[in-house]
Amino acid sequence: MPRSLSLAQLPITRPLIISSSATATCHSDREYPFISSKSTCVLDFLSSPFSLLKALLLRSKNLELLTMETSIACYSRGILPPNVSSQRSSTLVSPPSFSTSSSFKRLKSSSIFGDSLRLAPKSQFKATKAKSNGASTVTKCEIGQSLEEFLAQATPDKGLRTLLMCMGEALRTIAFKVRTASCGGTACVNSFGDEQLAVDMLADKLLFEALQYSHVCKYACSEEVPELQDMGGPVEGGFSVAFDPLDGSSIVDTNFTVGTIFGVWPGDKLTGVTGGDQVAAAMGIYGPRTTYVLAVKGFPGTHEFLLLDEGKWQHVKETTEIAEGKMFSPGNLRATFDNSEYSKLIDYYVKEKYTLRYTGGMVPDVNQIIVKEKGIFTNVTSPTAKAKLRLLFEVAPLGLLVENAGGFSSDGYKSVLDKTIINLDDRTQVAYGSKNEIIRFEETLYGTSRLKNVPIGVTA
């Protein structure tokens, strides 16, 4: 009869790689030399594979981690897997305690959130302080910073920093899921034999888990689960988050770029608020590169972070101005059939030889405006082509990203950040772009524009 070996008794002397969907059974220390045992032992962690990860971390002060939701890689100091930087943090932080079971509307503790956040290698680039003419100094974020370093400069709110770091971990894992998903019809399953759920449902699950693990999120809801879910965080000093887990999921099988969108509101309300009440918004883009684009209210610019091979996010771009340029992304073109003003606007773009850049995915189509720093995205309605884009889950978060980058947004009359969210499922038409493009959009559709006398750089 095999004897059970306590996880806390495991010495870490060699790399240990374990699939989260298997039971590891070892029969001798010759076969499994990382376990110091002369007799048969059984490690059964099917019920909670991540309790193993926690136990291993607590066992060794020198342990560092690389994690993915479908696997756990633990390695001791001096033994590095391929593509992992030898640069290390000098200290390790003990993991927070968490229960292996909880009830929904509290989602089960995840996989990927926790110590991997704090064990990411530090960037070699440091933030500097730019001297001003007055007595005070202004902190300037530099290209090359890690996500953690950037957030320390961008907001003094530790809770918001924690939430955005946890969401970054979720985005990293969703990128892995998207890359490895084999899709047929409406179901997707990756090569490791994970649950046969559509990839957008997998993304949905990971994001809810990230928000629960952050311990600062009170309520969350998504396009897939459009009801408030209690994440267990506080009302005072906490946040509520709305997200589209995988915008463009219908084009995953064609290998087009897709992405995640989310907005963060203070407190416990996601209705009766406006997009302008957001304290942060972000999108994850899963294409040839994986990027995390975010904006923090009160901090200038919209910032792009690139996912590096070693699994950390590095600051690679800051956008503070959307200039004029002939690039357009026209959504919902069927509306031109019975919306003559929209048809006229499209005719103008074609006549003036604008470059057409449209993928059918809202995330890449809006992201290119921020990255290229020019252009316009439109999605207009008509009597027969109703509004599809949701104000809470897509339009408002992207509105903050564009406007923080120096651009403008419009529903035809006003900024989408000024629209009050009445119901979780509220929908609207929208345009994002440079000032003159939004003026043209409003004037062509409705004959006048609120931006006509607004200086560039001033939100209207």
Automatic annotation (TrEMBL):
GO MF, any single term: sedoheptulose-bisphosphatase activity
Protein family per UniProt: Belongs to the FBPase class 1 family.
Keywords attached to this entry: Calvin cycle, Carbohydrate metabolism, Chloroplast, Disulfide bond, Hydrolase, Magnesium, Metal-binding, Plastid, Transit peptide
GO terms, biological process: fructose 1,6-bisphosphate metabolic process; fructose 6-phosphate metabolic process; fructose metabolic process; gluconeogenesis; reductive pentose-phosphate cycle; sucrose biosynthetic process
EC code: 3.1.3.37
Record's keyword annotation contains Metal-binding: yes
Subunit and interaction comment: Homodimer.
GO cellular component, one term: chloroplast
Broad enzyme group: hydrolase
Subcellular location: Plastid, Chloroplast
Domain (Fructose-1-6-bisphosphatase class I N-terminal): residue spans on this chain: 136-318
The Fructose-1-6-bisphosphatase class 1 C-terminal domain, residue ranges: 324-444
Catalytic activity: D-sedoheptulose 1,7-bisphosphate + H2O = D-sedoheptulose 7-phosphate + phosphate
InterPro entries: FBPase_C_dom (IPR044015), FBPase_class-1 (IPR000146), FBPase_N (IPR033391), Fructose_bisphosphatase_AS (IPR020548)
The protein's required cofactors: Mg(2+)
Protein name: Sedoheptulose-1,7-bisphosphatase, chloroplastic
PROSITE patterns hit by this protein: FBPASE
Biological pathway: Carbohydrate biosynthesis; Calvin cycle
